[in-house]
Specification:
alpha/beta; globular; two-stranded parallel ribbon; 328 residues
Length: 328
């Protein structure tokens, strides 16, 4: 079995390096590899794909929580859902001066992109107008690229964002289509795909990924990777679940470091040239594991503190990224 697994990886690697897009059967076969030598071959092969196709300029971004808590949706992983008692901060809209201060700091640090991320099903009306105005001012004053994650917006609402100079929209699929209904019942992936389709129609770049470690199988993680190919994101955030006390997943068994690295490798096989972005949860990983992930496939990341879980500092991230051979 180990010999067969290694042969499968070597053949798939040659196909990817030659520019071929791997078919779904091959990708699922790679995800099914279970021998130690086969898994090691996957990790090493992903490094070669990353070295050939992934840009060496690290795609950095930063985020501010524009609206916290008070969310009507029942996503089982989320600290901000009103269905659960987690003790997270609750506020309607972030203070504009505070957001501008953070954006200016990030621009001065050389971070490439700034995003406002809001809890809730969607940001509508005057709240959306406020966010659009704020992001427009930040882009004009600080010269930093802007993006947003404001939920399930309509095409007209997305147009307001686009006209404000926001040309990348974030909407995670979160997990495999076969697993999503067991984690959330207040909206569907079809709802998400409709928002993504509207964004792409207007000319937005799309940032979309998910969370691993929520009880899904490795095959389902590959199912997510394959589904993402349908929407052609320029960036795929890979979040690692941090079990939040008070949520239904508070006792979820942590995904192992090796499984995280294998997931990154499998996503790199499915998306050779797309930015794979470390997002929430990476703080639980040692510096050594993060460095290995960067070599295997991660070439983008949210830098600094995150939404409801502590991330890292800009200086530490800069050193880590440089040590992995990327340009910050």
């Amino acid at each position: 079995m180990e010999k067969e697994d290694k042969s499968l990886v070597e053949t798939a690697l040659r196909r990817v390096l030659s520019g071929e897009v791997l078919d779904e059967d091959t990708l699922y076969a790679l995800a099914a590899i279970s021998s130690e030598k086969g898994e090691n071959a996957l990790l090493e092969a992903a490094k070669l794909i990353t070295a050939k196709f992934a840009p060496r300029k690290f795609d950095s971004c930063s985020i501010v929580n524009a609206r916290s808590g008070l969310c009507s949706e029942n996503c089982k992983w989320c600290a901000q859902s009103s269905h659960y008692s987690t003790g997270c901060d609750k506020y309607e809209l972030v203070d504009a001066d505070e957001a501008k201060k953070v954006a200016r700091y990030n621009a001065d640090c050389g971070i490439g992109r700034f995003s406002l991320v809001a809890s809730g099903r969607a940001v509508h009306g005057r709240a959306l107008e406020h966010v659009c105005s704020l992001l427009k001012e930040i882009k004009e004053n600080d010269g930093i690229s802007t993006c947003a994650s404001l939920g399930l917006l309509s095409e007209d609402e997305l147009k307001q964002l686009y006209d404000a100079g926001v040309h990348r929209y974030h909407c995670n699929l979160e997990t495999a289509p076969s697993y999503f209904p067991s984690l959330c019942s207040t909206h569907t992936q079809t709802d998400k795909l409709a928002t993504i389709a509207a964004a792409k129609k207007l000319g937005f770049e799309v940032c979309s990924g998910g969370i691993i470690g929520m009880g899904e199988s490795r095959k389902q993680r590959m199912e997510l990777a394959i589904t993402l190919r349908q929407i052609e994101p320029v960036s795929i955030p890979i979040n690692v679940l941090i079990p939040i006390p008070g949520t239904p997943l508070e006792h979820a068994e942590p995904i192992s470091d090796r499984e995280i690295l294998l997931t990154v490798a499998l996503f790199r096989f499915a998306h050779p040239a797309v930015t794979l972005r470390f997002a929430g949860g990476r703080a639980r990983l040692s510096r050594e594991v993060q460095l290995e992930a960067l070599k295997i496939g991660i070439n983008g990341g949210i830098v600094g503190d995150l939404l409801t879980t502590i991330g890292s500092t800009v200086d530490k991230d800069r050193q880590l990224i440089n040590d992995a051979g990327y340009e910050f």
